[in-house]
Automatic annotation (TrEMBL):
Name of the protein: NTP pyrophosphohydrolase MazG-like domain-containing protein
InterPro entries in the cross-refs: MazG-like_dom, MazG-related_YpjD, YpjD/YvdC
NTP pyrophosphohydrolase MazG-like domain mapped to chain residues: 27-105
Pfam families: MazG (PF03819)
Organism annotation: Enterococcus innesii
Highest taxon above the source species: Bacteria
Length: 116
């Protein structure tokens, strides 16, 4: 069984990978273009697996998981270059969603928002 990693340790590993190259981190705009490209590739795979579009016979076989992994990797590169702690951002976002959207959708526990 493999050991679970934290976002912080993954960001550190990605940084170590990038630091071995003279180029280092690309500009935020270049990274945004790369992230957009990876999200497009993810969308293409989702469409192949769950949508109406079939793969062409000469297309390389990829998976949704592989493309999602690429999106995560590029997201970490961008976060590192902008000195963003993804763990901190995740915790802030979860607090926001748990508060703001606690009753946005019908809940399995049957609880409903009580008016203030």
């Amino acid at each position: 069984m493999t050991e679970k990693r934290s976002l912080a340790s993954m960001q550190e590993e990605v940084d170590a990978y990038i630091q071995q190259f003279k180029t280092g981190y690309f500009s935020p705009l270049a990274q945004m273009a790369r992230l957009t490209e990876e999200v497009g590739e993810l969308a293409r795979e989702v469409n192949h697996y769950y949508g109406e579009k079939n793969k062409k016979s000469d297309e390389v076989e990829k998976t949704v998981a592989e493309e999602l992994g690429d999106v995560l990797f590029v997201t970490m590169i961008m976060a590192n270059s902008l000195d963003i702690d993804l763990t901190e951002v995740f915790e802030e976002n979860m607090a926001k969603f748990n508060q703001r959207d606690a009753y946005r959708f019908e809940r399995k526990d049957g609880k409903v928002h009580e008016a203030d």
